[in-house]
């Protein structure tokens, strides 16, 4: 890892240079004591680190030069009380009016664990459009469907959306605060349950962090097992999302058949890996209990159902027409705001973090991409990624033949160091920044794919009709829980 200590004059210039060289932000992490670290994934696969040490509680904001870190800086302000000087929109992101003044949960050991909440309405002020004929429409945070909490404030004229202000982080759980001070061996259940859609990605990041700090290289067979469970999660997530998109336009046959495939896949994963949502499957240094034959059979069975379903949805002209040109994410916006995963690859960007992961080195990968950036493109990329994941899994299964028991490694109880790990979750680049001393967590920061892509959803919605919002939202199908950490 390359680390640089910044001065105020070159803080912005140095980080902008990283971006211009094609690097991707892994995380903007604050630490108690006044340090801000930005980690970049360079095109070479190397991780670069930029540091800013504060004299007081202010640090220079990068949001004007790098809009993709706007939420990071707002979150740091809410959780630590550090002020990003020059930030153009320093409204609360995580905190709400019920939080008492001066309460910053991660600022240090003096932060109260049980603050006295203020008895006021919890909603933060919204950014809206003003003018004649503009109507403000609020949706959520409680929704009619069985989804998690999100508050959307629309500025509309007639049926046309001018702007949507996202108020997420509604069910903040304080996961990063709960992790601090815990023995590293006890954090697995919390990390596993940050999110039900990207859980394997989170678990893998933690396992890699522990192994990296300990200097342990897992056997090749365990690497293959991790690929299998990561790709199983990707398929599960994509099957769910591919079901929800036709639901957004009332294409019930396609929706129900896709949900049936998702349920069949999920039941198979429960038998093969032990959990429908794949919780608690990846541990540092430990092999997975994978039934190789059962997994190969499950893939073949799903492919039989998949082929006619794909023909159905691709051959339905009404469905295809309804998706085209709706909810466009321009490539320039995806690049500027740091979009990742399906969202970015549907807008002509080709980055996939698996390209940089040593875990996948040597395995041929088929990277799907489209250029239109609309709902149709996001649908097509998911279709292709499901099949690409199956092909990769079949290649891995052909080589995964265990002869005898695999070794089980236990991390040292006095583990110390810092690690920055990343993976390609179903929602895109997912990074963990982990610092440990004498076996206890000092700081654990998560920057997930949904955190990167929610601001792009707001951009995609503007200029469309109100009736398009459910379809656009389902084509992103971003996780709320990764933000409510």
What does this structure look like?
By secondary structure, the chain is of the alpha+beta class. The chain has 3 domains: 2-119, NADH:ubiquinone oxidoreductase Nqo5 subunit (Beta Polymerase, domain 2, 2-Layer Sandwich), CATH 3.30.460; 127-171, no CATH class; 175-476, Cytochrome-c3 Hydrogenase, chain B (Orthogonal Bundle), CATH 1.10.645. The protein contains 14 helices and 12 strands. It has helices spanning 11-20, 70-80, 175-179, 188-192, 199-214, 220-247, 252-273, 292-315, 317-323, 331-336, 341-345, 375-399, 449-461, 469-476, and strands at 2-5, 24-31, 35-41, 47-53, 58-60, 83-85, 135-139, 151-157, 160-167, 417-425, 428-437, 440-447. The strands form 4 sheets. A 4-stranded mixed β-sheet has the order 1-4-3-2. A hairpin with a 5-residue loop joins strand 3 (35-41) and strand 4. Helix 13 (449-461) runs antiparallel to helix 14. The longest helix is centred in the middle third of the chain and has 28 residues, at 220-247. The chain is globular and about 60 Å long. It starts with a strand and ends in a 9-residue tail after the last helix. The model has no long low-confidence stretch (mean pLDDT 92).
